[in-house]
Specification:
It is a single chain. The protein has 460 residues and is α/β, with parallel strands linked by helices. It has three domains: 173 residues, FAD/NAD(P)-binding domain; 117 residues, FAD/NAD(P)-binding domain (3-Layer(bba) Sandwich); 90 residues, Enolase-like, domain 1, CATH 3.30.390. It contains 13 helices and 25 strands. The mean pLDDT is 93.
C-alpha cells in the first residue's frame, strides 16, 4: 500500500513539504488539512500595502493541489492526535490513519486583555480575514487614522505596509523605543527619530488600559499617561504564541515549541513538526530554538518532506534573522546579534541613519546588525554576503582584520574566504532546488539583467 502522509497546516512549511514529498515519492497518499486556504503570511503586508492583490498571497489553489495529487481538506481542523495509534481526529468526528504526520500549525497573535478589544474596528492583523477586515474598515476614507498597539517585528511590518498606503499612523510601544526587541539598542535608537521624521506618531513607554467607542464610528485609545488617541481603526500586535494546543497531553515533547531533531522528527519517529510551532536546530546555538520566520519555515518543510518520503537528510540549523523596512529605514539582524559576550566592531553615523555592528567569536562572525536608508541598503550586496558568511559558518582568518579596517568592503572578505563557493555547493535535500510549482494565474516570473550587473560583478 502507498505511504499515508498527513500534513496539518497550509503555510510555507506545509506546501514545501508537499512539493518535496512529490520530488521523491509520486505514489504516496498525501492529505493536507488546513482551516485556511494555503497562503503565506509573509505576503499579507504586500496585499495590505496595495502592492499585490489578495490572490498573490496564495501558495496553492485547487488545481495545483490536484496536480500534486493531494487530498486537500481546506476549512477543516484536526481536533486531536493519537501518536500511539497513528491517527488524527477531525472536527467532523472522522478519524484518519497516517504513516507519517507533519504538524505545521504555525502561531497566533497574543490577546490583549483590556476592555474594548471586542469593538468593531479593533482587531488583530494576522490572517487573510484580519487583513480583509481592516481594508473593509477603512474603505472610502482618504487618509484613515490607524493606531498600532505593539512595536515588535510583526507590528513594524504592518506599520510599514500602512505607511505605503499614506495612512495616518500612531504606534504605541511598551518599550522605550520601537523595534527594541528585534534589534540591538544602537540600531533601535535610529528607528525612533526616523519614524517621527516620516510622520509616524510614537508613544513609547506606554500601555493601553482601555479602548472605547466614540459613537461616530471612531475609537478612542486611552494610554496609561492620560493621553487619548482617536482613530478609525485599532490594530493589536503585542506578541505571538506557537499553536501547540493540539499536542498538549499527546505525549509529544514540547518546550517553547514542539521539540524536533535535525530531521524535523519529534520524540515519535513518524511525527514531524516545522515552522513557527517547532523548536529545532539553530546555527550558533547549542540549544534548540524557535525561529518564527519564513526562511526557516521553508527549510523545515523541505527537510520534513524529504525525510517523510524516505530520503534521509539532516538540517544544519536555522539562522536567526530579522529583516525589516521601517518606512524606508531598513534594518537587518542575523545570527547572535545580541550576544553580550561577543567581540564587536561597530560603526554609527546617526546623522546619516547608518549603523553597522559585526559580532565575533575568535575569527568567526556569529552575528551582525546593519541599518540604513532603503536606497543605500537595497543597492548593496553586503546584506546578502553577511548572511552567506553566517549561513556557511565560515571562519574568516586574516579577513577579520581586513574588515576591522575596511568595514564597508564585505565583498573582498566574502570572496577571499571562499564563501561563494561554499554556498554553491550547499543543498538542503542533496539535490538542486526546484522552482515553486504554483504560480498565480499560471504566470512565470521573468528577470532582466540591468546595467548595474556589470558594476557589481566586475573586478575593478
Amino acid at each position: 500500500m502507498a505511504t499515508q502522509h498527513i500534513i496539518i497546516g497550509g503555510g510555507p512549511v506545509a506546501i514545501n513539504a508537499v512539493e518535496t514529498i512529490r520530488e521523491f515519492d509520486a505514489a504516496a497518499q498525501v492529505t493536507l488539512i488546513s482551516d485556511e486556504r494555503a497562503h503565506s503570511r509573509m505576503a499579507l503586508p504586500y496585499w495590505l500595502s496595495g502592492q499585490v492583490p489578495r490572490e498573490h498571497t496564495y501558495t496553492a489553489d485547487d488545481a495545483s493541489l490536484k496536480q500534486l495529487n493531494v487530498d486537500a481538506r481546506i476549512g477543516q481542523r484536526v481536533e486531536s492526535i493519537d501518536p500511539d495509534g497513528s491517527t488524527v481526529t477531525l472536527d467532523d468526528g472522522s478519524t484518519l490513519a497516517f504513516d507519517n504526520l507533519l504538524i505545521a500549525t504555525g502561531s497566533s497573535p497574543s490577546e490583549l486583555q483590556i476592555p474594548g478589544t471586542d469593538l468593531s474596528g479593533v482587531q488583530n492583523l494576522w490572517t487573510l480575514d484580519h487583513t480583509q477586515s481592516l481594508l473593509d474598515t477603512i474603505d472610502g476614507k482618504e487618509r484613515p487614522k490607524v493606531v498600532m498597539i505593539g512595536a515588535g517585528f510583526n507590528a513594524c511590518i504592518m506599520v510599514n505596509a500602512m505607511y505605503k498606503r499614506g495612512w495616518q499612523l500612531a504606534v504605541i510601544a511598551r518599550g522605550q523605543m520601537p523595534s527594541a526587541r528585534v534589534i540591538d539598542e544602537g540600531g533601535a535608537a535610529l528607528v525612533e527619530p526616523w519614524l517621527r521624521e516620516k510622520g509616524v506618531e510614537l508613544h513609547c513607554g506606554a500601555t493601553v488600559p482601555s479602548i472605547t467607542d466614540a459613537g461616530d464610528g471612531t475609537k478612542v485609545v486611552e494610554l496609561d499617561n492620560g493621553t487619548t488617541i482617536t482613530a478609525d481603526a485599532v490594530v493589536m500586535l503585542v506578541g505571538v504564541k506557537a499553536n501547540t494546543d493540539l499536542v498538549h497531553g499527546s505525549g509529544i515533547e514540547m518546550d517553547q515549541g514542539i521539540l524536533v531533531n535535525d530531521r524535523m522528527q519529534t520524540n515519535f519517529a513518524n511525527i514531524y513538526a516545522g515552522g513557527d510551532v517547532a523548536q529545532g536546530p539553530a546555527l550558533y546555538s547549542d540549544k534548540p530554538e524557535v525561529h518564527a520566520i519564513h526562511p526557516t519555515a521553508v527549510d523545515h518543510g523541505r527537510i520534513a518532506g524529504a525525510n517523510m518520503a524516505g530520503h534521509e537528510v539532516h538540517y544544519p540549523g536555522s539562522l536567526s534573522m530579522n529583516v525589516l523596512d521601517n518606512c524606508g529605514l531598513q534594518t537587518f539582524c542575523f545570527g547572535n546579534w545580541n550576544d553580550a559576550e561577543a567581540e564587536t566592531m561597530t560603526i554609527s553615523n546617526p546623522g546619516g541613519y547608518i549603523y553597522r555592528k559585526l559580532l565575533w567569536r575568535a575569527d568567526q562572525l556569529v552575528g551582525a546588525v546593519l541599518v540604513g536608508p532603503a536606497n543605500d541598503m537595497g543597492m548593496l550586496t553586503d546584506v546578502g554576503m553577511v548572511k552567506g558568511i553566517l549561513q556557511t559558518q565560515t571562519r574568516l582568518g586574516q579577513w577579520k582584520q581586513f574588515l576591522a579596517e575596511n568595514p564597508f568592503d564585505i565583498r573582498r572578505a566574502y570572496i577571499g574566504a571562499g564563501v561563494a563557493q561554499k554556498l554553491i555547493g550547499m543543498t538542503l535535500t542533496g539535490q538542486a532546488s526546484r522552482p515553486r510549482g504554483f504560480r498565480f494565474d499560471g504566470k512565470i516570473p521573468t528577470a532582466k539583467v540591468s546595467d548595474a550587473h556589470a558594476t557589481f560583478m566586475g573586478t575593478k
